[in-house]
Amino acid sequence: EKLVVVGQGYVGLPLAMRGVDAGFDVVGIDVDEWRVKRLNAGESYVEDIVDDQVKAALRWGRYMASTDYAAAKDFDICLITVPTPLLEGAPDLRHIASAGHSIAPLIKRGSTVVLESTTYPGTTEEYLLPILEKGSGLRAPEGFFLGYSPERIDPGNSRWRLENTPKVVSGIDEYSLKKIETFYRQIVRDVVPVSSPQVAELCKLLENTFRHVNIALVNELSIFAQQLGIDVWEAIDAASTKPFGFMRFTPGPGVGGHCLPIDPSYLSWAVKRGLGHNFRFVELANDINRGMPEHVIRRLAMALNRRAKPIKGSRLVLLGLAYKKNAGDCRESPSIEVARSLSKLGARVRAADPYVKGFLAPPNIELIEASRQEFEQSDAVVILTDHDCFDYELAEQVSPFIFDTRNRCRGPNVERI
Ligand code: SAJ
């Protein structure tokens, strides 16, 4: 059977490779020429897929990548895994529309389409279905099957991978659900059928909104605890000893990435559009998390002030620019926002992040290697993204002052968020 995966990013490429493992002939469609070239040369740019997997799939003649949808002709199953960003705070479904319009003419009777992109409840049936029916001249589910299955890929997580992470699946009718369930059972260990695409769409938004709201909770708690003179990190460690009913989150300089800062706004947008209500939890969490970079600046300014050092002209060494540790992704990175603001305030900002390759540092920010000399000659070291590769002991020993937003350092010269 022929499987087409539209979008060969950190979600689509693992799906394509699992499809090859399961015996499908797979075509990976991507609009990015550079990606298609790399893939057809047997190279992976996705953290969780190694070159050899792509090379083997090519060698067996069971995989090819293309920018041309003609390569998708006669597909049996098509998975759509394209980005769903925000545009001025509202869902931007242009990539879903583009994929839908392009794949629709290639739908043959009895084929199956599954949307995996994170989106608001209703998208599959209200938005994608009409595009596919119009473009194919067929009706669903009589002519083709359609459903939704949210992605739960966590790049770099070696414990939970595509094949062993439970996969929620749905269909617009029971036959679509059966077809889609049967497909996923060939590539993942646990399949969790739900009664409608809207349930599956909402489930995904719930998962990430839950995380976003709880991070906002500990972020706001960290602000109050510090003002009360209470060590919030110790309190969180103590609370984490509760073996049931508590889930550990930690404060930080804000929430980055392309999931957490985005997905909750899909939910609040859907509630406002549908009911005219504000989803206050989500909006409050957005406000708190978006306010953390500025909170970091305020705390740092007060700490420097206590050392008779204005921010202007101070020599700052920042550790970490990526949005989360041990990764190089800078999308929506709060660390970069902090770096930019400090530079605007006239600080001399030098940033170290070995994961961020070939990065066009924001203006007036110098990329450096973290070293004894850099620490010694700084007025302050600011820990923003706590990559495990940084030498925190050295920083503690030789830095005049450390502002630590990730609880990696101890000592009389250390202040934590
Ligand atoms: N963060 C905190 N405190 C925390 C946890 C995270 O400040 O306690 C910050 C991180 O520094 C980062 C941001 O939040 O800036 C997002 O971190 P994340 O660990 O949630 O990483 P993501 O963005 O890669 O989230 C992904 C999501 N996966 C999918 O959407 C499929 C999310 O659902 C996962 O729960 C998360 O990975 C995970 O568990 O690692």
Question: What does this protein look like?
Answer:
With 417 residues, the protein is α/β, with parallel strands linked by helices. It is 40% helix and 15% strand. It contains 13 helices and 16 strands. The chain has helices at residues 12-21, 33-40, 51-59, 94-103, 123-136, 174-184, 197-228, 232-239, 263-275, 280-306, 334-344, 372-376, 392-398; strands at 2-6, 25-29, 63-66, 77-80, 86-87, 90-91, 112-115, 145-148, 167-171, 191-193, 315-319, 348-352, 365-367, 380-383, 402-404, 414-416. The strands form 3 sheets. It has an 8-stranded mixed beta sheet, sandwiched between helices. α4 runs parallel beside α5 (123-136) and α7 crosses α9. The chain is elongated, with a radius of gyration of 24 Å. The model has no long low-confidence stretch (mean pLDDT 96). Ligand SAJ binds at residues 151-154, 207-208, 211, 215, 249-250, 252, 255-257, 259-260, 323-324. Keywords: NAD, Oxidoreductase. This is UDP-N-acetyl-D-mannosaminuronic acid dehydrogenase/UDP-N-acetyl-D-glucosamine dehydrogenase. Residues 317-411 form the UDP-glucose/GDP-mannose dehydrogenase C-terminal domain. It comes from Nonomuraea polychroma. Belongs to the UDP-glucose/GDP-mannose dehydrogenase family.
Which features would summarize this protein structure in a list?
single chain; 417 residues; alpha/beta; eight-stranded mixed sheet; six-stranded parallel sheet; 40% helix; 15% strand; elongated; binds ligand SAJ
